Amino acid sequence: MSLRTTNIEKLDGGHFDVFIVGTGINGAVSAAVLAGRGASVAVIDRGDFGSFTSQESSNLVWGGFKYLENYELGLVRKLCLSRNRLIEAYPANIKEIRFLAALDESSPFAPALASLGTLAYWGIGSFATKPPRHLTAKKIEEVEPIINTEAVRGGIEYSDAYLKDNDARFVFSFVRSAIKAGATAANYVELTSAEKENGRWKANMVDRETGHSFSATADVIINAAGPFIDGLNQSWNLRTDHRIVYSKGIHLVVPQLTKNERVLAFFDDTQRLFYVIPMGKRSVIGTTDNRVDDPNTEVNDDDRNFLLGQINARLDLENPLTIDDIIAERSGVRPLVVDNDGDDKEDVDWTSLSRKHEIESDSVLGVVSIFGGKLTDCLNVGEEVAAEVEALGVKLDEDDGEWYGEPPTEMREEFYREARLMGLDDLQSKDGVEPLSDRLWRRYGQRAFSMLEAIREDPSMGEDIMDSADYIRVELHLAAHTEMITRLEDFMRRRSKIELVVHEDDYRGSEGLKEAAEILFGDQADAKLAEYFGEASPKADALAGIKAELGSDTAVAMTDTAESGE
Asked: I want to staple 54 with a disulfide (CB 3.0 to 4.6 A). Which of 109, 397, 437, 565 is the partner?
């Protein structure tokens, strides 16, 4: 019996202290902290874990340098401290990285003023990173020759952090922690309705894979539906002080533009920041910032042409980037928090809104609502949610901090000792690829020990499953049993980042992908491959699927696929 099936059986007819709707970063971290502190927790998502906003981020963990422009010093301080905690707690996953910002005529700030800002930012962050520095145009050309410095007045260099792997996998690590602590979690389970009965919430659900309907009860319900939070609250007639507006951001993944592992920052022609961010052997260009009313977005020709035009004007490339260079695309909305003081959303100056979060509780209904937020602030969100749940009467154990972070240093050192003795890194010697021991430890932590044993018994388990994917066979076997991969997209896009760094033409129809599907799905491999290539993604057909299944307008309000993320 699969892990997902086991968890759905636990959901069916179960009672829980807390029931969480949505498994983006907010829902996932809430599940981890509450389960880690002794609560009985159920958490569901009608899509895959981290499959909406939380898979469309910049992969950056940062304190919000740009928020200094609006004098949001308290928010910047809070985010910087959270960034510092994450770097310390996840040393293999979250790394300090330098940002190099080239300032030209599009920049709203002179280099001297920007340099003062970096010093203030460094101090607000408790001097926890490498110190910033001012750069002349000549120095920028020296350290990063790819930048076209003809119009550059100067620049700055400072530190923040980023995720070495993808954002959705980091979100899933909190789901894994919650399950390890006793939580019940299931993807592709849709909340069809929820109502308060006899002092308890009754949540009615349907398994989107089988069509099986069932229900569970809970004392407290957490609305972690991210961009869809308002519709879910309205379905419960819940009035809140805050609501969400949307800002669309897109990223384009292209071949590696510079081998220097740093983020390049520029102001576009509208004086908004965009970046070139490293992603292994690729570069990610983004993001845009456009007001939209629909949280379901996609990259269009205007988006592509705008970003390509902006980056080509600022880099000295032998061959300017074209649409043919795009390997993958990302498009998502940022759920931005505003006061719920009226129905007219046009009066909101959304361009000045920060990625703050707000948490509200309704003690009568027993509902906690999480508005906004970002990956960087996830630990704060988890702790604040736990405090609200306690205030609603759910007894929690003391917070010992064990619900987050990587395994202790002693365990890490033992893993590397065993890996070194068996010559693990000698199995992979491709140029530009990090040591296999680093990859396995970062992605799996304690679970990586079982991989060493599997490779000892069968060296083929250490072989790449697909060219250019940097994913070995044993990872597929572990994922099949422990990571609730339900659709091939779950593996290709979220548990791994293959879909982001390998062009579809390079894996479509490949023997490696076929073997991956066979390992993950057994005799269902062909059907899963056909579904992956032949049907719309779960994200694209989400609303249509709900309407078809429920046949009512209520379905739109109950959409809970999405979640809040970076």
From this structure: 565
Q: If you write DSSP's letter for every residue of 264-329 in order, what string do you get?
A: EEEE-TTS-EEEEEEETTEEEEE---EEES-S-----HHHHHHHHHHHHHHB--SS---GGG--EE
* CA dihedral for 473, 474, 475, 476, sign (positive or negative): positive
Confidence at 468, pLDDT banded by 50, 70, 90:
confident
- Bridge partners, 367 (sequence order): 221, 362
CATH number at residue 31: 3.50.50.60
pTM: 0.92
**Which residues, in sequence order, are CB contacts of 254 under 8 Å at separation 6+?**
282, 283, 284, 285, 321, 325, 326, 327
Q: Can you list the alpha helix ranges (DSSP code H) found in 94-188?
A: 111-124, 137-143, 167-180
Number of domains the chain contains:
3
Q: Is the pLDDT of residue 94 over 70?
A: yes
Which one, of 419, 378, 394, lies nearest residue 177 by Cα?
378
Radius of gyration of the chain, Cα coordinates, nearest whole angstrom: 23
Could you report the per-residue pLDDT of 399-432, keeping only the tens digit for each? 999 999 999 999 999 999 999 999 999 887 666 6
b/e 279-299 (16+ beta carbons within 10 angstroms → b): bbbbbbbbbbbbeeeebbbeb
- Local structure of 487: helix, strand or coil: coil
Same domain, 439 and 524: yes
pLDDT of residue 352: 66
Rounded to the nearest 10 degrees, the angle between the axes of helix 436-444 and helix 409-421 is 140
122/199 Cα distance (integer angstroms)? 49
Per the domain annotation, does 545 fall within a domain?
no
Write the pLDDT tens digit of every residue in 476-503: 999 999 999 999 999 999 999 999 999 9
- Residue 557 has a pLDDT of 38
Kindly report the average pLDDT of the chain as a whole number. Answer: 91
- Asked, for residue 88, whether it belongs to a domain, the answer is yes
102: CATH = 3.30.9.10
